[in-house]
Amino acid sequence: MTRPRLLVLRALGLGDLLAGVPALRALRRAFPGHELVLAAPAELAPVAAATGAVDRLLPASAPGRAVPRGLDWDGPPPDIAVDLHGNGPPSHRLLQTLSPRRLFAFAHPDTPEIDGPPWWAEEHERDRWCRFLQFYRIPADPADLLLPRPAGLSPAPGAVVLHPGAGALSRCWPVNRYATVATALRGRGHRVVVTGGAGEDDLVARLAKQAGLPDTDVLGGGLPFDRLSALVAGARTVVSGDTGIAHLAVAHAAPSVTLFGPVPPSRWGPPAHPRHHVLWHPGPQGDPHGRHPDPALLRIGCEHVLDALDLLLHTS
Does the residue 196 lie in any domain? Predict the structure, then answer.
């Protein structure tokens, strides 16, 4: 007998996938007999596997946060299709082209045939998708987001990890400020390691040069997920903007300091816990995909980051 298939669309980035882990696990529990297929970028396959909720990843992506033009779906239509990508309507329509037996999606005036819950723009991302599933009578716990400890050894156990990059310049704290923090930490006897995503080698190199870091402590070029995961899980603290590695620190219960600018932590921040510190100056919300550092982000000074680190490093 053919196993029914449940297709989940979330063709976004690392942080998006990690924020969606509680919803994915809720779907796994609700439909244990289905093959759960996640439509997401191919490079996130190891992350999807680590969640324990996904049977197979269907490669799907588009520039920015756009909806893919199509899905390379084969065989009969999905028994259930779940739109975890956004509030539609393009993502709704993409899934509708596959003629699923059931479609779970947020309500949108341009797709009135879908009876879904309302979208609340200011809702926290983890809470949003759990509330969404609860509308369909699927219990979901926003706190169910931890990943298992990586099997591999950290390339820099006990280091303070600085990650200056982000998906947009509006969420990138200036490199010279990261360098000031790195220099101060090294002066206090801490090992500092710098990481960067794919295409961020120049950014990482500038920080390393300004801080005088040895080559052994420069991990640029986009680490494979297994190494990045082991690094974060074994870190003394992770310092970054509002980007994927901050969510990975949450997933591995690693201490973190996260710098928020255009978007407040009430929408994308870590759970309330002493090991996670958020830095943010309230003000009008900016563009999370802008081309210049957000003014609210620039209001965070080096002394603010070092003070937060002092609290974590003295208690961890």
Answer: yes
How are beta strands 102-104 and 218-219 bridged, if at all?
unpaired
The answer on 226 and 103 residing in a single domain is no
Question: Could you read off the pLDDT tens digit of each residue along the chain, which spans 316 residues?
Answer: 689 999 999 999 999 999 999 999 999 999 999 999 999 999 999 999 999 999 999 999 998 889 999 999 999 999 999 999 999 899 999 999 999 999 999 999 999 999 999 999 999 999 999 999 999 999 999 999 999 999 989 999 999 999 998 888 899 999 999 999 999 999 999 999 999 988 888 999 999 999 999 999 999 877 899 999 999 999 999 999 999 999 999 999 999 999 998 999 999 999 999 999 999 998 888 888 888 889 999 999 999 999 999 999 886 5
- Which parts of the chain fold into alpha helices (H)? 14-19, 21-30, 45-50, 90-96, 125-135, 175-187, 201-211, 225-233, 244-251, 265-268, 295-298, 302-313
Do 166 and 308 lie in one domain? The reply is: yes
- Inter-residue contact 169 to 291 (CB < 8 Å): yes
Which residue range forms the structural domain that includes residue 169?
A: 160-313
CA atoms within 13 A on the CB side of 98: 29
Model pTM above 0.90: yes
- Residue 23 gets the label, from left (phi > 0), alpha (psi -120 to 50) or beta, of alpha
Distance in angstroms (rounded) separating the CA atoms of residues 277 and 141: 22
Q: Where are the alpha helices (DSSP H) in 38-87?
A: 45-50
For residues 49 and 106, membership in a common domain is answered with: yes
CATH number at residue 304: 3.40.50.2000
Same domain, 47 and 122: yes
